[in-house]
Fold each of these.
Amino acid sequence: MKVAVLGATGLVGQEIIKVLEERNFPISDFVPLASSKSAGKVVEFSGAQVEVREVADDAFKGVDIALFAAGAGVSKRWARVAVSKGAVVIDNSSAWRLDPEIPLIVPEVNPEDVMRHNGIIANPNCATIQAVVALAPLHKRYCLEYFSAVTFQSVSGTGKQALVELDECARAILEGKSFEPQVYPLPIGFNVLPHIGAMDESGVSDEEWKMLNESRKILHHQKLQVSCTTVRVPVKRGHSEAIVAQFEERVTLEEANAILSEAPGIIVMAENKYITPLQAAGSDLVYVCRLRSDLGMSRALSMWVVSDNLRKGAALNAVQIAELVASKTKAF
């Protein structure tokens, strides 16, 4: 199978390449693509050094699956081109997620939607993915009415320059020097920023709208109520979420533990044990910790959910979608 990765030199693109190798995805021809700025660089795949090509109309000729990890603008420009050449595009940006004609897929949650595609399949936002992986098994049994999420999102979600800025900012603060941020609106070192993305007139940020709209689409639950505050924290890798979920029926802890323990892609931490982003880095799993009955709502559960945003939150989910496409398409 001929597979292209657009954005091959970025954080997510590099992780996609790594996951493709780890999972032995059936690749006969590998095509790393990027902008003119990164064209000519070399990436490693299956022990070989492969030169990155500049994305162009002819770059997708003969490509079966194209994994996009280069931002919404790039996806809008090139996704339809890739499809016209015969490729199935799996896009990691926000460009197509809310398009009603394009499926938004988390393989543990709604794999049945994948073959509704017309050439493009959207990969959800990293924070949404780990939330719905944790909530979907309970929703299927008890019907989720509402959930609130406060997210604590690492800087790798912004990209390579954010990782550099975190290091430089922390160093400057420790040395008593001033620091002018370039990536974030305020210094991120030893600090938290209480929004991710631009805020609209109502004060809701882009990332918060993603949690609402994407969760509804993935779960096929347009009446789902969602309250969300997204926070950028000085962590390099791994997102954490404090979630309170209310259901139509009362859920006992014993029932919730049993359901989640049997769900794919989830590890439920016993009793008062928990996972932090540092421990989750490099893992493919979603960790559900501190699962407990909510103090204020009788039909609600509270939980601490942690996952690697570059793995399950991006690269792994994209490759899992590619595996679904490959398994359901006779031509592959």
Note: The chain is about 30% helix and 25% strand.
Amino acid sequence: MSGKSIRLFLVDGDYNGLITAELVNWTGHTLAGPRSELPNLLAREECHQRTGIYFLVSRESSDSGLSVYIGESDDIAKRLKQHSRPESSGGKDFWDYVVVITSKDGNLTKAHVKYLESRLIRITKDVGRCSLINSVTPEFTSLPESDSSDMEFFIEQVQMVVPAIGFTFLKPVKKSVDSGSGDSVIYLLESPKHRLRARATEDGADFIVLKGSDSIGKWNGKNGGYGRLYRELCDRGVLEETQNGRRVFTKDYAFSSPSAAAATVYGRSTNGRQAWIVEGTGQTYHLYQSAKIAEVLPDNETSEV
């Protein structure tokens, strides 16, 4: 894949404040920030009476994943103001961060953003990296062939720029090659006592447990953290009960770390860097990664600081 240039701008010089993001040769414009910055966000030109799409995000627990709501409007500022109200007044309480996508040339129409909203909801569901708050998936308006092509390109750019500001809920999980053949390194996690066997691979920051892997039938560790993640994956059908009392992964699932994956398989907190081993070698994940680092920088070339 060829390189891409993404321009990130910290509006107030603070990474906790408003951020804009743009891709070279893309007409889209991204504006993002925490809910506490909503007054400043709504005052900006790219929100006021602009047609676009938006993502309301709850970052409450990175262990149990994000909660996301996807919407569209022909007046982004007005719609976000409505969402800022209490739930009892028709607003939404759950979110603490917002990402707004508009067009620099103002050429996004209502039909365009309805198409984008519907497609992005479907993509987010298929990817399965978050809890989607949308209760329905709206049908998109049929667009002329040329417009549909333009919007599909727009979606590809959105899928690139949103992860650049820290959210991967639109990033497809890498398809496992024969569930891990080819050049991919396969990691194995087993528990003879509980008759568990799980396989995984990596793709960038994703540690992907492969479809068909086993998991414990019930969470046995402390509540919270990975326990919430385990229960959420059960509720979403990623972990499905089997007749033997265990659970099985119904799809390839991307975790943020080997430890999150190992905890989900074992049903308790686990040091995944020590628990996962390279299939066919007995070498732990930690030792394998250390060996890869040593290939680049041998121990005799390191220096004390």
Note: The mean pLDDT is 90.
